[in-house]
Design a protein that fits this description.
Helix 2 runs parallel beside helix 4 and helix 7 runs parallel beside helix 8. This protein has 479 residues and is of the alpha+beta class. The protein has two domains: 114 residues, Purple acid phosphatase-like, N-terminal (Immunoglobulin-like); 348 residues, Alkaline phosphatase D (PhoD) (Purple Acid Phosphatase, chain A, domain 2, 4-Layer Sandwich). Helices cover 20% and strands 28% of the residues. Bound molecules: fe (ii) ion.
Length: 479
């Protein structure tokens, strides 16, 4: 919870009169009023954030219960929303029990929302937790079947989203999108977010698991920073600051994330803490973190007491020498390789703290990786990094326009040869991951979709890697 100012949260109103479930309301009425579904996020041991969106300015009542039929209600209240926040609703629920599943719903007049399910974070000593891990879901490039797969998993505590939740351009390869142009204005960003929240797989994922999300560049524009973006032309698209402010506002309105600073830390008992970084809002040509976030991160590394540190970084942390390949630079300066000073400060802090249980959790590069994070001299490993692939966004075979598991095989072998700390890389498949944390190990499992363009695609478990306590090394897991 550090890094977040609780006073800035949109608090739910005082507890109101009972929102009883009287009167039959048709599902179509609920669909009309709550067409963007329900969501929860940022779980803490005694609470969680609830989210929905309604179609009109109105009073919105909410209820939280132990059971799906709402016979054991534990919290209720009401709040208001309006056009100033695009009719989105956020409710901070407190007073809940740790590590407990709850059900929630909203109500406008007689219309009741779909029921959502969520789970609070644990406290104290726990035997394990499991997360879904996702990034890079381009609506226009495919169907979100992998999201649906995670929705159906009954064993997840939360879903960690590492960014590229939306994409800003207009390129309808598989599915058409709204608006039908690059998104620039606040209205554009709101429209694109609203469209995403009509996807049935994503809606189910939100309604069944709390999200712990940060953003990457595509929530604003390609390769974005505080001072500009590769995907932004001030001459034709106006001042970058205006566009970034619009993207930020829409993200906070439409995501189940607490208001305030996006970099934040969530505690999962004594087993782990989750540090979510914001590598876009404070980035300049000199720093990926910005001074404030850097100091906060280093202090967290030094002061933290949890057995494992999970660090959600939207872009790859480990150094990567890219082999000669058509269309690729030798170094990707959009990831931490473009900011070696910031990375060195983090690596040295981990080393000084004797912390070998830091695990970087990464998205962005539309491919699957398990990496030993080397220190600056590459003489030893100071941490580990697991990278989840894209849900649908183009990966290397599509980028190179070659069939999967052909041209990329050569590149994968070349990457491993040039980067001995890279222990596993797969450049072609789309999907999602799960991450299981126990006192003994952190294990990442990759699940791949058979075809991103197929609404009936199937999902299979493809790879499994782990790091064991105090090793700072990854190793394959046979399954
Ligand atoms: Fe992406």
């Amino acid at each position: 919870m550090s890094g977040v100012d609780r006073r800035t949260f949109l608090k739910a109103g005082a507890v109101a009169g009972a929102a009883t479930a009287g009167g039959a309301v048709s599902a179509s009425a609920a669909t009309a009023v709550f067409e963007h579904g329900v969501a929860s996020g940022d779980p803490v041991p005694d609470g969680v954030l609830l989210w929905t969106r309604v179609v009109t300015s109105s009073e919105v009542r909410w209820e939280v219960a132990h059971d799906e039929s709402f016979s054991r209600i534990v919290a209720r209240g009401h709040t208001r929303t309006g056009a100033h926040r695009d009719h989105t609703v956020k409710v901070e629920v407190c007073g809940l029990r740790p590590s407990t599943r709850y059900y929630y719903r909203f109500r406008v007049g007689d219309v009741v929302s779909p029921v959502g399910r969520t789970k609070t974070a644990p406290s104290g000593d726990i035997s394990g937790v499991k997360f879904g891990v996702v990034s890079c879901a381009n609506w226009m490039a495919g169907h979100f079947v992998p999201y649906g797969y995670l929705a159906d998993r009954d064993d997840l505590d939360a879903v960690i989203h590492l960014g590229d939740y939306i994409y800003p351009h207009y390129d309808p390869k598989v599915r058409d999108a709204q608006p039908q142009h690059e998104i620039i204005t606040l209205a554009d960003y709101r429209t694109r977010h609203a469209m995403y929240k009509t996807d049935p797989h994503l809606q189910r994922l939100h309604s069944l698991h709390p999200f712990i999300a940060t953003w990457d560049d595509n929530e604003s524009a390609d390769n974005s920073s505080a001072v500009g973006a590769l995907g932004h032309d001030p001459a034709t698209e106006g001042p970058w600051a205006v566009r970034l402010a619009a993207a930020t506002q829409a993200y906070f309105e439409w995501m189940p994330i607490r208001e305030g600073l996006m970099f934040r830390r969530l505690q999962y008992g004594s087993l782990l803490d989750i540090t979510m970084l914001d590598l876009r809002s404070h980035r300049t040509p000199e720093t990926i973190l910005g001074a404030r976030q850097r100091d906060w991160l280093i202090k967290g590394i030094c002061d933290g007491t949890a057995r494992w540190r999970l660090i959600g970084t939207s872009v790859m942390f480990s150094p990567l020498a890219i082999p000669p390949a058509p269309g690729f630079p030798s170094v990707n300066t959009d990831q931490w390789d473009g900011f070696p000073t910031d990375r060195e400060i983090v690596v040295r802090a981990l080393d000084r703290a004797g912390m070998k249980n830091a695990v970087f959790l990464t998205g962005d590069i539309h491919s699957s990786w398990a990496v030993d994070v080397p220190d600056g001299s590459a003489l030893k490993s100071v941490a580990t990094e697991f990278i989840t692939t894209s849900v649908t966004s183009d990966n290397f075979d599509e980028f190179l326009k070659v069939p999967p598991r052909t041209g990329s095989l050569v590149l994968e072998a070349a990457i491993m040869a040039k980067n001995p700390h890279v222990r596993f890389v797969e450049l072609d498949s789309h999907g999602v991951s799960t991450l299981e944390v126990t006192p003994d190990e952190v294990r990442m499992d990759w699940f791949y979709t058979s075809d991103r363009t197929d609404p009936q695609a199937t999902i299979r478990k493809a790879h499994s890697w782990r790091t064991r306590h105090n090793t700072a090394r990854v190793e394959p897991v046979l399954f």
